[in-house]
Design the sequence.
């Protein structure tokens, strides 16, 4: 990953910066999402092609940030299987740490349709391994989940680049160096990128989506929580995600 990582850093420097405050107008808490999976070796070229069309989130001169998320689920993996079975609305609960800034949120994501997600969050002091009364109350207000049934289920760790369109209400997150952790087990996917195009409503392809299409990269459903659950908690039913697993295995084999 050494040379490739250097190429990613160099490509990110080609973008004009956008501050966190400026990006507040593109928070998209109620949004339409389109996800893509592709080999990380393709990322530098894709970034170069997008550099004049997007700005990159920059905080204290940093443009690539480390994210750590701890997902909660029931002993029977209720949120995983609701996703697997296509239930809507469905929910996911996680603590997310923005490692470079030290900021931590408790987040509740609600999936309401194929491409529409609503996210609510509240700032907290630390990642909890046992839900506090305050966190439990927040989860109850934002979802039908019973916080007493929830416990830590999976860590997801990754680096993220965030792009913001210069001409439309659009935000793109690009995650790479992805790994998962559960208890003492860990699975790393250094060959994989997951990109997500987020916009208020579907109004045709965005510039980045056109760049991906020209590179023969097409949309596909992808949940890091579900992927990590499959990889670290086998055997587990994953029929709905089989196409994704085959695609990831192919990327790993080829690249």
Sequence:
């Amino acid at each position: 990953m050494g040379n490739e990582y250097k190429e990613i850093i160099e490509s990110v420097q080609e973008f004009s910066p956008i501050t966190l405050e400026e990006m507040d107008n593109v928070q998209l808490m109620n949004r339409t999402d389109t996800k893509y999976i592709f080999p990380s070796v393709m990322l530098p070229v894709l970034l170069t092609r997008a550099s004049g069309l997007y700005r990159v989130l920059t905080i204290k001169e940093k443009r690539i940030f480390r994210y750590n998320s701890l997902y909660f689920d029931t002993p029977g993996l209720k949120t995983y299987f609701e996703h697997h079975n296509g239930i809507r609305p469905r929910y996911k609960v996680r603590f997310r740490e923005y490692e470079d800034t030290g900021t931590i949120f408790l987040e509740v994501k609600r999936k309401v349709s194929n491409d529409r997600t609503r996210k609510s969050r509240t700032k907290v002091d630390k990642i909890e391994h046992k839900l506090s009364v305050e966190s439990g109350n927040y989860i109850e207000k934002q979802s039908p989940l019973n916080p007493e049934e929830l416990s830590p289920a999976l860590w997801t760790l990754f680096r993220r680049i965030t792009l913001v369109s210069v001409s439309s209400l659009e935000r793109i997150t690009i995650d790479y160096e992805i790994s998962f952790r559960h208890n003492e087990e860990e699975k790393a996917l250094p060959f994989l990128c997951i990109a997500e195009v987020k916009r208020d409503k579907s109004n045709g392809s965005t510039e980045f989506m056109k760049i991906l299409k020209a590179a023969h990269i097409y949309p596909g459903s992808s949940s890091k929580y579900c992927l990590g659950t499959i990889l670290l908690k086998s055997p587990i039913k994953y029929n709905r995600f089989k196409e994704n697993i085959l695609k990831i295995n192919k990327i790993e084999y080829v690249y």
Remarks:
- The first strand starts at residue 16 and ends at 18.
